[in-house]
Amino acid sequence: MSNDPRFFAFLKQRIGLDVASVGEAIIERAVRQRSQVSQAQTADEYWQHLQRSHDEQQALIEAVIVPETWFFRYPESFATLARLAVARLAEIKQMRALRILSLPCSTGEEPYSIAMALLDAGLAPHQFKVQGIDVSPLSVERARRGVYGKNSFRGGDLAFRERHFVEHADGFHIADRVREQVRLQVGNLLDPGLLANEPSYDFVFCRNLLIYFDQPTQKQVFDVLKALTHVDGVLFIGPAEGSLLGRHGMRSIGVPQSFAFSRQGAPDQPEPAFVPRPMPAPPRSAAPIPLKPRPFSTVRPHGVPIKAPPSEAGDLLSQIATLANEGKSAEARAACERYLNAHPPVAQVFYWLGLLSDVAGSALEAQGYYRKALYLEPQHAQALMHLAALLESQGDSAGARRLQARAARSERADSESKR
């Protein structure tokens, strides 16, 4: 039932989701779950129910979109925003409030992080307003509640929680002074009327969304984002999306780890030379995956065995690595699908799917999987290296250099942590 292409087409039409970006297994699992809840016995029965019920359509979208976010994710983006906001206010002589857009805003962690960062930078409440938009009514309602559990607070520096939250029995409640800076609404970026009558925004956050679309939809969405961003504004994107913007005339503002782009940005900063660290060799009994060399590429992909924790999920990850390293691509891909059917998605599975697609010569599919791995784990070294090699082979040298620089920084950070 669940692999019926009608459901893939429905999600593509409604929210622009490209099935290759997440893998069929995630969508199939969501369709099975909703079919069971709806007590549908066949694919046709559930399809008819889906067509009749707006609530069920939204429920299926909610089942596919699993929010994965936390406060101050990619912290350098918020530090950069604060510096740029102070400069922008001076530039416009404080004649109006700054306008910031967070789309998709998910369950609110990002727009509230924006507000906290600007308040902490000394901006007064009347100097800025934040607009948060998401396609999911459930996510927007959770954002409006402003109550968060411990999973929304990650990293070592949680001092902001003491300043901007009050702890209660049901979780951490965001302070009214932060909540009042943020306006939240339900909206679809593919809706041509979205924000049609609104002035442009000084800063737009649209992170980890473009990677879920095929190339025509990416172009459509980019055109919308460009129209929403002030001509002198800055667009913040996800760590795996820089090369996509580069192809459309946007340039990095040159602040490492900020993932910030502008139409009139400074030229890209020189990238440090990238010398990949030798990867662990596969077991002697396992032949490495034979990867096709790419012209002008200095990165040589390797099959890398995983040292997984002793668990059912860990065992399956180890099995995927073994099958891939033995050249059993079909079996390895099937094991990846089994993992995604039974467990929450992890970067390593999408990395293997990318590698397997790479070996099979499916460059666009591989690129989608590598970007998904980087969404889940932005500093995944192997995904960074392989995606860089893929972009280089496609002629996107600037995008490849950016990824190589990130991989180099990841390698240095990993080496320093082990000293």
Automatic annotation (TrEMBL):
Where, in residue numbers, are the TPR repeats?
Answer: 347-380
Start and end residues of each CheR-type methyltransferase domain: 1-241
Q: Which Pfam families does UniProt cross-reference here? A: CheR
The biased composition feature labelled Basic and acidic residues covers 408-419
* GO process annotations (BP): methylation
> Which parts of this chain are annotated as the region Disordered?
400-419
What would be an example GO MF term here? S-adenosylmethionine-dependent methyltransferase activity
Instruction: Give the keywords, sorted.
Output: Methyltransferase, S-adenosyl-L-methionine, TPR repeat, Transferase
Give the EC number. Answer: 2.1.1.-
Q: Which Gene3D superfamilies match?
A: Tetratricopeptide repeat domain, Vaccinia Virus protein VP39
Q: Does the keyword Methyltransferase apply?
A: yes
Q: What is this protein called?
A: Putative biofilm formation methyltransferase WspC
Q: Which organism is it from?
A: Pseudomonas extremaustralis
State which gene encodes it: wspC
